[in-house]
């Protein structure tokens, strides 16, 4: 039987601000006396000094039964009576950041270095040497995104079945090998084939990592970790630009072009990351001694990274924050029924629509920046070095915007800023004459590329509003698939007959930016309205009716009446 609420309890969930008169996501419960005058939970985020979802015998029996049936990998450490101090949890959180978050960042950096190095390779005569033009380049990118898209959901579900600790290192090693093989391509056909294989090998990685991180971090901790996760994009591109500045100067060595050396060496770097991942990636906090089937004990010790008490703290802090994180084990596949439930959850569709459109505008400018700069008269080395300031701005903005979102407990309106930011820069790109100096055009392009990238905020919304491990796995993949649909369209905005200034393409992007601002506001209004509708139904029920509903409902995730959407 599910947990039953009383008049005395409200659900605190992940939110820093909790209404005294409303119910929200069933992540844990808090006495009204534990709220200060502003509605903030006192000491809610570290330590075990608050009420939780297992405080009542009914709730405890319900969740224990679920964890046993699911064969949840941390159930042997589940202890509703366990207590720990904020300092203990803080120390373990730092340990997770160093052991888990850092390596996840390195793995994502490997992906981003390999998928975007084509943007630097084209500045070194790759297109003419392969007998290609801008449209052929776009076609190759489209093939890559379609392959990435096709592998997104199957890749995530396969990983859910066999475990990310098994599938992730295999995938990284494969895309490193494919990247290195790009040094051998001689024609447009070879370019198309390798882009397709690269997309297939990388699809599924991002939603897989979002789900993986949710195993280790609480809902209030995840958004900032996701923002750090996406700092891999600007920082890797800074590193990639510096590497390209050297590799592309190797043109002529052994009769190879610079872009061939770039593909070869950066692919070998990814292979190295993939092989290392076999030895350092655990399936969960309770399985660090089982990395590589226990064959890596020489590296991690016989008992792994954590003591039994530390494992218990890490398991129970996650379950008290969100009990649904134990309703599947990390080797359990998502059923077709679970897949259908996630697909038809129309309350997540507004975020999927934003995933398609919100980040389309900046992608063409980022992909074409080095090529555009060489067209404007800069050398290959200068073009790659001049890309760095935009990535630095991107890095600063992504950390600030996600921090601000959490500080203000606001997501969709803060996310609108990504498109508001780009609006004046695209107006400038459309308005300036062809005679404008290259530095003016470079400044405007750098401004677009320095976007406050709010992708992490929307991914966090999907994770929070999914509200179960199974739907979270599918919904994260669906959202990223929507993003790839947008990327496919973005890859075809700049056309060969529109170069080098792409006035027509920039007008299209300006229009999309304007529409996106409106869509963010409409999505905000939708979730406000949906929460109000659910509030009216829920508050109209008597306590007996609420108890009966919780005990008998077949609603799952965000479909439950006692669940409120974060927005």
Structural write-up:
With 567 residues, this protein is mainly α. The chain has 24 helices and two strands. The protein has helices at residues 57-70, 86-121, 126-129, 134-162, 164-181, 188-202, 205-214, 222-230, 232-247, 258-280, 297-300, 308-321, 336-343, 349-357, 362-375, 380-386, 388-408, 412-415, 417-431, 438-449, 455-466, 469-490, 503-540, 543-552; strands spanning 9-11, 29-31. A two-stranded antiparallel ribbon has the order 1-2. α13 packs across α22 (469-490) and α19 packs antiparallel against α23 (503-540). The longest helix has 38 residues, at 503-540. The radius of gyration is 25 Å and the shape is globular. Mean pLDDT is 83; it is low at 1-44.
Summarize the structure.
The chain is mostly helical.
Q: Helices, strands, pairings?
A:
Elements: E1 9-11, E2 29-31, H1 57-70, H2 86-121, H3 126-129, H4 134-162, H5 164-181, H6 188-202, H7 205-214, H8 222-230, H9 232-247, H10 258-280, H11 297-300, H12 308-321, H13 336-343, H14 349-357, H15 362-375, H16 380-386, H17 388-408, H18 412-415, H19 417-431, H20 438-449, H21 455-466, H22 469-490, H23 503-540, H24 543-552
Antiparallel strand pairs: 1-2
